[in-house]
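Re: the request from the purification team.
They wanted to know what the chain is likely to look like in 3D before they choose a buffer screen. I agreed to run a prediction and write the result into the notebook, where they can find it.
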Amino acid sequence: MKMRRRFKQTVSLEQRLSQEARELRKVAEALAAGPAREDVMRKAQRNEAAAQLTACLTSPGLKPPT
C-alpha cells in the first residue's frame, strides 16, 4: 500500500485563495475580452467567495450548536 505524501501548510487556506484570486485578476487584465477572460474572472470571484466563507467559518465568534 502506498503512503500518502503529507506536508504542513505554511499559509492558511484563506490567504492562498486570496493570493490566487489576485493573480487570476492580473491574468484576466492581460487577456482580451471574451470567454477566456470571463472564465478567469469567474474563477477569481469563486476564490474570493471561498476565502470569505473560510474566514467566516473559522472566526472565533462562531459557537458550536448546543
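For the purification team: The chain has two helices and no strands.
Please add any questions underneath this entry.
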